[in-house]
Fold this protein.
Amino acid sequence: EIVLTQSPGTLSLSPGERATLSCRASQSVSSRYLAWYQQKPGQAPRLLIYGAASRATGIPDRFSGSGSGTDFTLTISRLAPEDFAVYYCQQYGSSPVTFGQGTRLEIK
Amino acid sequence: QLQLQESGPGLVKPSETLSLTCTVSGGSISSSNYYWGWIRQPPGKGLEWIGSIYYSGSTYYNPSLKSRVTISVDTSKNQFSLKLSSVTAADTAVYFCARQGVVAVSYSDYWGQGTLVTVSS
């Protein structure tokens, strides 16, 4: 199975700053089948990005995804107070679907 | 608006079978071309895909759990269900049901709120 490693484990930033989250795969993710989710305490994950770069319905354009092969990035251009949460990447290019261990984005 | 809701016992004894049901509202399981899946999250940890089912009954399971997992669908009730046998404390987790894409291996765009299942005697 494909192992996803996210970095950093924790990212401390201030509102208005730019956040860059990384997801590295143990082998190439076919057809850029990589998604990103946001999860807040006590809530289900929320789909942000699919196909590595396509925003899900209703997701603000400050969220963007990029990458291919084994290296993917989620960028939040200007952090809003509600963006502080845990972010997970997920690959669905091969079975089984696997998730990264998460990056916690906290207020500095 | 599509909504999913998990239901089932919150406490299961070791070696017994965990059983959960996901009720879908705001859309029909059988009229769409989506797969429906289960994902779990141990307390304070990451996400693990358990498996998926199509309304026709075709299933796909995570190999790590395949020997213990059964996912079924009841289109008349617009529900799908999860059974996980021979549970241990390691199966304690929040269990989410979710809508997946038009293929079995896909992202999830609609999620239930999740239900905590604790395995303990």
User: Anything to note?
Assistant: Residues 6 and 23 of chain A are 4 Å apart (CA to CA). The interface with chain B takes residues 1, 35, 43-47, 50, 56-57, 88, 90, 92-102 of chain A (CB under 8 Å). Chain A is about 0% helix and 50% strand.
